[in-house]
Amino acid sequence: MNALTDEQIGGVLGLLKFDANGLVTVVVQDFASGSVLMVAHANREAMRHTLETGRAHYWSRSRKKLWLKGETSGHTQQVRELRIDCDGDCVLLKVEQVGGACHEGYRSCFYRVERDGAIVIAEEKAFDPGKVY
Amino acid sequence: MNALTDEQIGGVLGLLKFDANGLVTVVVQDFASGSVLMVAHANREAMRHTLETGRAHYWSRSRKKLWLKGETSGHTQQVRELRIDCDGDCVLLKVEQVGGACHEGYRSCFYRVERDGAIVIAEEKAFDPGKVY
């Protein structure tokens, strides 16, 4: 995704329906593999930064601050495609993920899967979280 | 996914962190293509029904009721895989989608995509919503 102009950014933001907390839900998918990597939230400012820079920004509900994904870990997300759902309250980002999306060291936050009625870990760690956080 | 026993269902539900409204976020992905189809919410009862029947159930926040996906349209979702994210507040369902997931007639709710700074419709309709709702 190329960086958007102010006018283009205004057009995209105008289609979004931010909730009572000023947030949209963001689903993040690996551009190459199609794996769902994580779910996060973005306010208007985070969406603007994403659209201006082409790098995924979110709003951290726990830390209550704008969050450039990868600012600590280096595990940035370059946005290759942006989609908006029918209601305008969810955004889908297809990204090139450096390292892993999950703070626990996995490529995807969805590393736990149901198998025969039990929830098991289905993936190898992509990095050692103790070394990057 | 096979229907789970009561004990297995209790095990899965015990890993989920329902929010202040008693909900988890559910991301729904096409099992065959990997396309993200929709984002919805589930309460404990909806998750239990999904795990018992293998068919996706949600909690409709607008109608404030349990919702078997496809109960009106016939566009049901057979769950083939269930994943839980690291925080336990998001569930990923990989489903076999009959017809389309979107009430506007598209296969996916994410039928709008950014192209050269504008948001455009990227998909053909899969069905006529006037005929199924």
Question: In short, what is this structure?
Answer:
Chain A has 3 helices and 8 strands.
What can you tell me about this protein's structure?
Two copies of one chain form a homodimer. Chain A is an alpha+beta fold and 133 residues long. The first copy, chain A, is built from three helices and eight strands; from the N terminus they run αββαββββββα. In chain A, the strands form three sheets. In chain A, strands 2-1-6-5 form a four-stranded mixed sheet. In chain A, strands 3-4 form a two-stranded antiparallel ribbon. A two-stranded antiparallel sheet of chain A has the order 7-8. In chain A, strand 5 (77-84) and strand 6 form a beta hairpin. Chain A is globular and about 45 Å long. Chain A binds chain B through residues 1-2, 4-5, 8, 11-12, 15, 25, 27, 29, 33-36, 38-39, 81-87, 90, 92, 102-104, 106, 109-114, 116-119, 122, and chain B through 1-2, 4-5, 8, 11-12, 15, 25, 27, 29, 33-36, 38-39, 81-87, 90, 92, 102-104, 106, 109-114, 116-119, 122. Strand 5 (77-84) of chain A pairs antiparallel with strand 7 of chain B, so a sheet runs across the interface.
Q: Strands, helices and their partners?
A:
The structure is a homodimer of 133-residue chains.
Chain A lengths: L5 H9 L9 E7 L5 E7 L1 H10 L3 E4 L4 E4 L8 E8 L5 E8 L14 E4 L2 E4 L7 H4 L1
Parallel strand pairs in A: 1-6
Antiparallel strand pairs in A: 1-2, 3-4, 5-6, 7-8
